């Protein structure tokens, strides 16, 4: 009730929720009380969570914040949310996001932008919460849920976490089932939590992760007790500092924070080593070929026949065209066009196939670093703190927005786990995050190391 009241009082201001499930939340909470009274109860009994609108929730608003899914209410529940409810968690509602998870500012949502609860010192101007999981990050930061589900294809958990002073982890590809999560770029998409601290993130990920016969890319590995990793020493841990992440034009305060992170880990007994990940510079252009290619294929299903919106036409082709023209926003259309282009006959080899080869080289950079004994890699999470809503530079040039993903996309390309942990404030009093990147399926080392930084 306290969380529902907080949402009712503050959601107009932040626009973090696109649907609040009052009745369902109270029913779930009552069921949870009954289990506890009977001496039963799971690891998350009664914990109120928000769910990104990308996760299918049975009978509840599920539109990936797109107009094209207008009115869609799935008859099934995603595996990740099913796992959370099975452990006793309670759903508060569905959270705002960039349309189909395409964006870095939550401004491409059909439901309008989310406002970051943080503002620069002495300013009333609204800042973006990051994206695409902007609603998840803002809701956690504004205490409108105890934690939230999110997804990350190129940074959409870690960048909004960094912009809102929250913790976000993208686990290894395959750790969480993608079943029931609306697909953006299937070879990159992963679910993970956004939470207020590292411990909450560890507890939530434990519940979200599972092997699932309905997702053949989910991995059959035991899910460790991540919480048990907290407080373990990082003495002797080898922390790699990749020189390619020292990008041109990086603000001094981001560089200073990175140095601060290095100092904290050194002080805690970790060994710092300089490393090279030579193909880093190709990551962004490669990502912005592979992800639109997969998106153009995944989004072909929204044709006015099977789901959501239908705009009638004189024949079926005109109906398809009118539905897609009215249903998708500009950024989504841009990605479908780029993706269709790079997959088309004559261009496939030059763009898509080439990008896949570069992706293999990016992954090999990480393999080599880990083979040389590096346990974890430390980088900034983002090249800057949260920028303003309707930022003129970003709006006039989509590539400026894409540059925000410079430190996060490599991790998805290589399928590795990455965590963003709040590490300090910039000169304007806005939160900044540090990113830790781990070996495949070694989320424990990320939690252990992040706990030293937070
Ligand atoms: N900003 C990136 C994009 O727009 C990442 C989004 C994501 O991780 N879902 O593709």
UniProtKB/TrEMBL annotation:
GO CC entries: glutamyl-tRNA(Gln) amidotransferase complex
Q: Which InterPro entries match?
A: Amidase, Amidase_CS, Amidase_dom, AS_sf, GatA
Keywords of the record: ATP-binding, Ligase, Nucleotide-binding, Protein biosynthesis, Transferase
Boundaries of each Amidase domain copy? 1-446
Enzyme Commission number: 6.3.5.7
One GO biological-process annotation of the entry reads:
translation
Give this protein's Gene Ontology molecular function annotations: ATP binding; glutaminyl-tRNA synthase (glutamine-hydrolyzing) activity; transferase activity
Q: State the SUPFAM superfamilies in the record.
A: Amidase signature (AS) enzymes (SSF75304)
Q: Name one Pfam family in it.
A: Amidase
Keyword check for Ubl conjugation, yes or no.
Answer: no
- Which residues are catalytic? 52, 132, 156
Q: What class of enzyme is it?
A: ligase
The record lists the membrane-crossing segments as: none
Query: What reaction is this protein's catalytic activity?
Result: L-glutamyl-tRNA(Gln) + L-glutamine + ATP + H2O = L-glutaminyl-tRNA(Gln) + L-glutamate + ADP + phosphate + H(+)
Q: Subunit details for this protein?
A: Heterotrimer of A, B and C subunits.
Tell me which family the UniProt entry assigns to this protein: Belongs to the amidase family. GatA subfamily.
Role summary: Hydrolyzes indole-3-acetamide (IAM) into indole-3-acetic acid (IAA). Allows the formation of correctly charged Gln-tRNA(Gln) through the transamidation of misacylated Glu-tRNA(Gln) in organisms which lack glutaminyl-tRNA synthetase. The reaction takes place in the presence of glutamine and ATP through an activated gamma-phospho-Glu-tRNA(Gln).
Quote the NCBIfam families the UniProt record gives. Answer: gatA
User: What is this protein's name?
Assistant: Glutamyl-tRNA(Gln) amidotransferase subunit A
Organism of provenance: Aquamicrobium defluvii
